[in-house]
Design brief:
globular; five-stranded antiparallel β-sheet; Beta-galactosidase, Chain A, domain 5; single chain; about 325 residues; mainly beta; about 5% helix
Length: about 325
């Protein structure tokens, strides 16, 4: 099956042209599932997280740590808001699942605008909260936003079993932000996954020759797709970006992080763009493949995505 990377397809698939309308009372507690090697792989979203992914479960194993409103499988973006101070992502940081202040609570400052489920596809539109509330600080740095909920809208489409492989989850995102905002720098955490600490082994798939190589703890980004796996290699999750808006010229960074005190590990896929005097675009679309299985299978499918380019068999 062809894997087109053209922007027109992103606009269509990621539904960035319109917000899903599900009425005034929206239930974000939804799920989709598919059989993977004889067991269901199930993705669950919740109202508590404004429709962000709370759980990915397969063969009795939970892949997502969803303790607060900053973990999950979710997306976020950050902007400079024309500040001349050194960039710090959390100062102006629309976040899908909610704000830092939401903590482990049952409500999100983000607003779920719509959600749809059809067969193995789940679509959401979310008005993202700022991670920091006005007046709050991150590492001593004051929030640049003046409201708790942003006017940034995230449109997301999640499809299970794409490209005829049940191990592959395709995630299409479109970020939209208002004409009234002025920025010179944009950072898109297109997708991040927070996993329980038992996914203790960090790996990367070499984009040069497909070798599976160990990664140190970093923390931070490097240019090759990342896999987090259990010590025995039986359970793993990896991600690879396979497309983005044509006005973004940078290549993706793939991060890995270990938070010992919180007993959680993380991967992410990040794109950045700088434009002077200011950003002229108000929409950015991306595609990421999230792959679940054992470590070697995940690595093989990531290598196929690297080598086959616009097709995946």
């Amino acid at each position: 099956m062809r894997l087109s990377l053209c922007l027109a397809l992103f606009v269509s698939i990621a539904h960035g042209q319109e917000t899903i309308d599900s009425g005034s009372s929206i239930d974000g507690n939804k799920s989709i599932s598919i059989q993977v090697d004889g067991d269901p792989l199930k993705i669950t979203t919740t109202s508590r997280l404004a429709g962000a992914v709370h759980s990915i479960r397969w063969k009795g194993k939970e892949f997502i740590d969803s303790a607060d409103h900053g973990r999950q499988l979710q997306s976020a973006c950050s902007f400079d808001a024309l500040s001349d101070e050194p960039f710090w992502a959390e100062r102006y940081n629309p976040t899908e699942a909610g704000s830092r202040r939401d903590g482990a609570g049952n409500r999100s400052t983000s607003r779920l605008l719509g959600i749809e489920v059809a067969d193995k596809v789940l679509r959401t539109s979310t008005q993202m909260a700022y991670w920091l509330n006005p007046g709050e600080r991150s590492e001593g740095r004051l929030a640049l936003n003046e409201t708790s909920c942003s006017e940034h809208i995230l449109h997301k489409r999640i499809e299970l079993g794409t490209y005829s492989d049940p191990h592959i989850i395709r995630v299409d995102n479109t970020f939209e932000w208002p004409q009234s905002e002025n920025h010179r720098f944009a950072q898109f955490e297109v997708l991040t996954g927070y996993l329980p600490s038992e996914f203790s082994e960090f790996w990367k798939v070499s984009s040069q020759d497909g070798r599976l190589l160990r990664l140190d703890d970093g923390p931070g980004e490097q240019p090759d797709p990342v896999i987090l796996a259990t010590a025995d290699g039986e359970f793993a999750m990896g991600a690879i970006a396979v497309g983005h808006s044509d006005w973004i010229v940078s290549k993706p960074g793939y991060g890995r992080f270990r938070f010992e005190a919180e007993r959680v590990v993380k991967w992410n896929v990040v794109f950045r763009h700088r434009e002077l005097p200011g950003l002229s675009n108000r929409k950015a679309s991306f595609r990421v493949l999230v792959i679940v299985g054992n470590r070697d299978l995940v690595a093989r499918l990531i290598w196929q995505a690297i080598t086959l380019g616009d097709s995946l068999r």
